[in-house]
TrEMBL record, chain A:
<dbReference type="GO" id="GO:0016491">
    <property type="term" value="F:oxidoreductase activity"/>
</dbReference>
<dbReference type="Pfam" id="PF13510">
    <property type="entry name" value="Fer2_4"/>
</dbReference>
<dbReference type="InterPro" id="IPR036010">
    <property type="entry name" value="2Fe-2S_ferredoxin-like_sf"/>
</dbReference>
<keyword id="KW-0560">Oxidoreductase</keyword>
<dbReference type="GO" id="GO:0051536">
    <property type="term" value="F:iron-sulfur cluster binding"/>
</dbReference>
<protein>
    <submittedName>
        <fullName>Proline dehydrogenase</fullName>
    </submittedName>
</protein>
<dbReference type="InterPro" id="IPR042204">
    <property type="entry name" value="2Fe-2S-bd_N"/>
</dbReference>
From TrEMBL, chain B:
<dbReference type="InterPro" id="IPR036188">
    <property type="entry name" value="FAD/NAD-bd_sf"/>
</dbReference>
<dbReference type="GO" id="GO:0005737">
    <property type="term" value="C:cytoplasm"/>
</dbReference>
<dbReference type="Pfam" id="PF01266">
    <property type="entry name" value="DAO"/>
</dbReference>
<keyword id="KW-0560">Oxidoreductase</keyword>
<dbReference type="InterPro" id="IPR006076">
    <property type="entry name" value="FAD-dep_OxRdtase"/>
</dbReference>
<feature type="domain" description="FAD dependent oxidoreductase">
    <location>
        <begin position="3"/>
        <end position="355"/>
    </location>
</feature>
<protein>
    <submittedName>
        <fullName>Oxidoreductase</fullName>
    </submittedName>
</protein>
From TrEMBL, chain C:
<feature type="domain" description="BFD-like [2Fe-2S]-binding">
    <location>
        <begin position="380"/>
        <end position="429"/>
    </location>
</feature>
<dbReference type="InterPro" id="IPR023753">
    <property type="entry name" value="FAD/NAD-binding_dom"/>
</dbReference>
<feature type="domain" description="FAD/NAD(P)-binding">
    <location>
        <begin position="13"/>
        <end position="310"/>
    </location>
</feature>
<dbReference type="InterPro" id="IPR041854">
    <property type="entry name" value="BFD-like_2Fe2S-bd_dom_sf"/>
</dbReference>
<dbReference type="InterPro" id="IPR051691">
    <property type="entry name" value="Metab_Enz_Cyan_OpOx_G3PDH"/>
</dbReference>
<dbReference type="GO" id="GO:0016491">
    <property type="term" value="F:oxidoreductase activity"/>
</dbReference>
<dbReference type="Pfam" id="PF07992">
    <property type="entry name" value="Pyr_redox_2"/>
</dbReference>
């Protein structure tokens, strides 16, 4: 795996340095929210950064939502926001 | 001095207090903890008519469901969640399906509505159900309440005084007669006392020198992540649930009970075992509950469990609650021992006791629920037909 | 060690949960004394919070890092390190059974005779209007982004909260090129001066950060807090208030910024210990921590704890407690081993000094009750279930008397995070200190995984 690669967010490319989490890569690319809450439709992204708050849930490659701050980005990962 | 003291601020105590207050009594409710901090806080909140055979408990359930609906209407929106979502009992084999349909036909006479559903029509009710089921029975009257909120709202009646964090330690007597309670915050006298202490109802009875054989029957519930789109619409369970509910076994029994909630989570039960008040989480039990739920709804496979909890159902050997005046201790009434149906049966219990307390004839015969029915000399009576 | 070589389940001597300073020190100490050790951590790399580092080699300037890397390498040779493994429960039959989720989501169980809980802590958050806007991060979260991912959390950043941790966070962000508009300490800041001994011991470190802040012209202000965050879809500005000593608002001003890093100390993660029935005690700030004896042993046979779960005290104390626990576990496993492997008086004295320092810091930076006044009725207290303050107040009116009954009536803490984020605030709003967290499922587990028989760790899985 090379040290720099890309993933996509809703089809848009986002650069990643190897070892970065999906949450960190999105945040660094200026994508600060990637889901909305069930009741109030409020935007959410990173908050605790270490897997505690579950605000950063994200769906990658069609899988059920996972914590973006714990998930290492892999080349070609497709992130879909909701 | 209050007309009535209710021990226990669970859903049953709340319903007793509520109906007594509506009947004009001045009521004080005492709990050693907060509102709904006992088994009510661990219950799922189903108001079921689908899981009972014809008999006194079913009559109580049918009356209670009617009362829950009226209470919810009185409370209005913002009162407590009451969702008449209906129940769906499913059968794995044609033989079980025949028995389910036969049971449903019997309960119709007690006022239970139902529709027998053929195997191929089940997905019309629950699109995500596993294939290969033989059929089921749909019970439109089954409903769900948020039991903690419901209890709190019922206690909101203006003539009820709620005293939390007060522990009952004994009774005040005048001869045989119970005239009030002793608590860790002093004595309180009243014309009548209701023991609505749920799983601890036996301990309260013992303080009054009478015996009630109420035992804890542990149950675990799994709660999933909140789902954006509901995956399960009804309360769905397998026929084995009915058998387990009625069983006397102390060992572990589990059956699949799956339902969605307004909060978006899916609740998964049900386990039953008699292990005292042991709260230790049992991973094998959780695992069995998960396996049964996934077998019923394969789409649940990828859904995550985010918590689990357990509670202790107040279990009586004959699976009937104890409701009524205690002839062994005049002035003392009981409303406890509702096992896995206390939320469903709470309003009827309170309503019937309020009728007794105000000198009216109770709408249902209370004899099957008599507190002294476990006394050795009296036991044969329990088979007597209600008048 | 028991079981047959091959694919039979193995019962190892020790499982360590947590690969931070405490866990790594404990695991290596025990492994060096001949015990079979398995270390589990949910992260992708060892290090925990303090020694968090990027995957692509950049040597961070973290004090003690080189030594930690040597320890981690040695550990890799002498023990089985399972990363990206989330422990969701620990149960007990004849052995302790550690239940975890492997990277693909599959279930793995590890049997052991001894367990070391070294699960660290997480940031303590306080609610305020707008705190759930994207761009508001915990202080630790901003630090983790910087240390672990090389990502600077924003361009124009405000740092706020209480405690000495705000200093390295502010200094780190400024040093990495962000414009840090201020570090706002809600406390008086002078508290530590009353404790001459610890103040001396760490004056150097704090002075270093203070210098770094000054170099980048970052204002450090005490008795100030961020009491509201503003923005449409993202953070655009914060309201900074001047506070009295109880944290009531005296005056406010608005600062435009894109990022806020905010933290009010740390919450030890003790849920696994609580699952096992370990006794807890109230830490200086009233938070429950695992009670341990001089050998880091909890009240439950076979269970030790080290690092933040026994009381917040920073990485040096965590590492030392880990070492002491490792020695104690080894001594317990082989009581006849030579005395050389025992916990020495010197170690115990050092731990005493570090603990006194940790306590002094906590006493110097308490959370004061005035934060409640920052909230409005519509301010979310529970972010997951979106429960505003008004609903919590209503639950209290309805007869809830403690955090648990508030939760039952109004749902705060029932969602994804299981009350980790709002637990402190809800308990305080209910009028009590936070209680030991009851979480039978510590990490979310899919029903499919839970339904299947887990893969037991066997001999062939060990080095
Ligand atoms: C897992 C599980 C699922 C369930 N699901 C359902 C369901 O779907 N539908 C249903 O109908 N039922 C269900 N139940 C059963 C239901 O929860 C109980 O039957 C019901 O809550 C009992 O209510 P209660 O008011 O009698 O008891 P509790 O809610 O336990 O109230 C008794 C109160 O008495 C108080 N008390 C005890 N001793 C003293 C004392 N000495 N002094 C002062 N106060 C005292 C306690 O603090 C407590 O608050 C379930 C139970 C479990 C465990
Ligand atoms: C986000 C954050 C950032 C911090 N940054 C700094 C800093 O830069 N400088 C500083 O001096 N202090 C920092 N701290 C304070 C920190 O608590 C201590 O300095 C130090 O890291 C504590 O060491 P520890 O070994 O006790 O725990 P930690 O270092 O926190 O290690 C605990 C480890 O346990 C793992 N873990 C926890 N639960 C589970 C589970 N259920 N399953 C598997 N693994 C689990 C975690 O992934 C973590 O790696 C930070 C704290 C936080 C919360
Ligand atoms: S940011 Fe909190 S869990 Fe990912």
């Amino acid at each position: 795996m090379s040290d720099a690669f890309q993933i996509t967010v809703d089809g848009r490319p986002v650069p990643v340095t190897r070892g970065q989490t999906i949450g960190a890569a999105l945040h660094a690319a200026g994508v600060r929210s990637w889901r909305t809450t069930r009741l109030g439709g409020r935007p959410r992204g990173l908050f605790c950064g270490i897997g505690i708050c579950f605000d950063c849930l994200v769906s990658v490659n069609g899988r059920p939502p996972e914590r973006a701050c714990l998930l290492d980005a892999r080349p070609g990962d497709e992130v879909t926001t909701s | 001095m209050p007309d009535l003291i209710v021990i226990g601020a669970g859903v049953v105590g709340a319903a007793c207090a509520h109906y007594a207050a509506r009947a004009g009594l001045d009521v004080t409710v005492i709990d050693r903890g907060p509102v709904a901090g006992g088994t009510t806080g661990a219950g799922e909140g189903n108001v079921l008519v689908s899981d009972k055979e014809p008999g006194p408990e079913l009559d109580l359930a049918v009356l209670s469901r009617r009362l829950w609906r009226a209470l919810a209407e009185d409370a209005g929106p913002g009162g407590f969640e009451y969702e008449p979502k209906g129940g769906l009992v499913v059968a794995e084999t044609p033989e079980i399906q025949r028995r389910l349909a036969a049971l449903a036909a019997l309960t119709a006479a007690s006022g239970v509505e139902h529709t027998v559903v053929a195997g191929e029509d089940l997905r019309g009710y629950e699109p995500h159900l596993a294939g290969g089921l033989a059929g089921g029975v749909h019970y439109p009257q089954d409903a769900q309440v948020q039991p903690m909120l419901a209890a709190a709202r019922l206690l909101g009646h203006g003539s009820i005084r709620l005293r939390t964090d007060v522990t009952v330690t004994g009774f005040t007597r005048s001869g045989e007669r119970v005239t009030g309670v002793r608590t860790d915050r002093g004595d309180l006298t009243g014309d009548a006392v209701i023991n609505a202490a749920g799983t601890w109802g036996g301990e309260i009875a013992a303080l009054a020198g009478v015996e009630l054989p109420i035992l804890p029957r542990r149950g675990f519930i799994l709660v999933t992540e909140p789902l954006h789109r509901p995956l399960v619409r009804h309360k769905v369970y397998t026929a084995a649930y009915v058998t387990n509910v009625a069983s006397d076994a102390a060992g572990l029994e589990t059956s699949a009970v799956v339902e969605g909630t307004p909060a978006g989570t899916v609740l998964i039960g049900a386990s039953r075992e008699r292990v005292g008040f042991d709260r230790t989480t049992s991973v094998p039990v959780l695992s069995r509950l998960a396996a049964q739920a996934v077998a019923l709804f394969p789409a649940l496979r990828d859904v995550r469990v985010i918590r689990s909890y357990c509670g202790f159902r107040p279990y009586c050997p004959d699976h009937l609650p104890v409701i009524g005046p205690d002839p062994r201790a005049p002035g003392l009434y009981h409303a406890c021992g509702h096992e896995g149906a206390g939320i469903g049966l709470a309003p009827a219990s309170g309503h019937l006791l309020a009728q007794v307390l105000t000198g009216r004839r109770p709408e249902l015969d209370l004899r099957p629920f008599r507190p002294d029915r476990f006394e050795p000399a009296l036991r044969p009576d329990r088979f007597e037909e209600p008048a | 060690m028991s079981g047959q070589p091959g694919s039979d389940p193995v019962t190892c001597d020790v499982v360590v949960v947590g690969g931070g300073p405490a866990g790594v020190a404990g695991a290596l100490t025990a492994a060096r004394r001949g015990l079979r050790v398995v270390l589990l951590d949910s992260g992708a790399r060892l290090g925990g919070q303090y020694f968090r580092h990027p995957a692509v080699a950049v040597r961070p300037g973290t004090a003690g890092f080189d030594r930690f890397v040597r320890q981690a390498r040695a550990l890799d040779r002498q023990a089985r390190v399972l990363l990206r493994h989330q422990v969701w429960a620990v149960s007990r039959d004849d052995d302790l059974v550690v239940h975890c989720l492997a990277p693909g989501g599959g279930a793995v169980t590890v049997r052991c005779r001894g367990l070391l809980i070294a699960t660290g802590a997480h940031d303590r958050a306080l609610p305020f209007p707008g705190w759930d806007l994207p761009g508001v991060l915990t202080a630790g979260g901003a630090q983790a982004l910087l240390k672990g991912d090389g990502v600077v959390a924003g361009r124009r950043i405000v740092v706020a909260g209480t405690g000495p941790f705000l200093l390295p966070v502010g200094a780190g962000l400024a040093g990495a090129g962000a414009r840090v508009l201020g570090v706002f300490e809600a406390g008086g800041g002078l508290g530590l001066a009353r404790h001459p001994l610890p103040a001396l011991a760490r004056a150097g470190e704090a002075a270093g950060y203070a210098l770094a802040l000054a170099r980048h012209r970052v204002p450090y202000r005490t008795r100030r807090a961020v009491v509201a965050a503003h923005g449409e879809r993202e953070l655009e500005a914060v309201t900074v208030a001047r506070l009295d000593r109880d944290w009531n608002v005296l005056a406010t001003r608005r600062i435009a910024c894109d990022t806020l890093a905010v933290g009010y100390g740390f919450v030890p993660q003790i849920d696994l210990g609580v699952q096992l029935g370990c006794d807890t005690r109230a830490d200086v700030d009233g938070s429950p921590v695992l009670a341990v004896d001089g050998a880091q042993r909890t009240s439950v046979e076979g269970v030790w704890a080290a690092g933040e779960p026994t009381g917040v005290g920073g990485w040096r104390l965590a590492e030392l407690e880990g070492r002491i626990a490792g020695l104690a576990i080894a001594a317990h496993a082989a009581p006849d081993a030579p005395a050389a492997g025992r916990v020495t008086e010197a170690l115990i004295r050092r731990r005493g000094r570090l603990r006194a320092f940790g306590r002094a810091l906590q006493e110097a930076y308490p959370v004061r009750p005035g934060w409640r006044g920052w909230l409005r009725d519509d301010t979310l207290v529970c972010r997951c279930e979106e429960v505003p303050l008004g609903r919590i107040r209503e639950a209290l009116r309805l007869g809830a008397t403690d955090a648990r009954s508030v939760k039952l009536l109004a749902r705060p803490g029932m969602g994804w995070c299981q009350g980790r984020v709002c637990g402190y605030a809800v308990a305080r709003l209910a009028g009590e200190p936070p209680g030991p967290p009851r979480r039978p499922v510590v990490q979310p587990v899919s029903l499919g995984t839970l339904a299947e028989p887990p893969h037991p760790l066997s001999w062939k899985d060990l080095p």
